[in-house]
Amino acid sequence: MALALVITYALVAVFMICWYRLPGCVAAICLAGQVGIMLASLTGYFAVFPSFTHGTALPWSASTSLQTQIQEFATSSDHDAAYFANKIVNILKEAGVKGDWNLVE
Hints:
- The longest helix has 22 residues, at 22-43.
- The chain has helices spanning 2-20, 22-43, 60-75, 81-94.
- The radius of gyration is 21 Å and the shape is elongated.
- By secondary structure, it is mostly helical.
- It folds into two domains: 2-43, no CATH class; 60-94, no CATH class.
């Protein structure tokens, strides 16, 4: 995956530099910075900001249960949002996902 990132970035950077010259150089540098900041944010490198992807992966059973509930809601004729929201919150709680689950009051 990292190799694909490097190869793709190199191809895009070379194209931008060849096609746009100086603005292409500036764009390639900006793109490298944006990719670096994005990866640092997703991996939790910045400790003062909570990472939304770190440690939030659901177990397979909870993931399939959520998918089933969403499909059931989408195909349901009555669309009782509170009922389905409570079922989804219960699935998340059983999976051990931490959070304040006041979706429906």
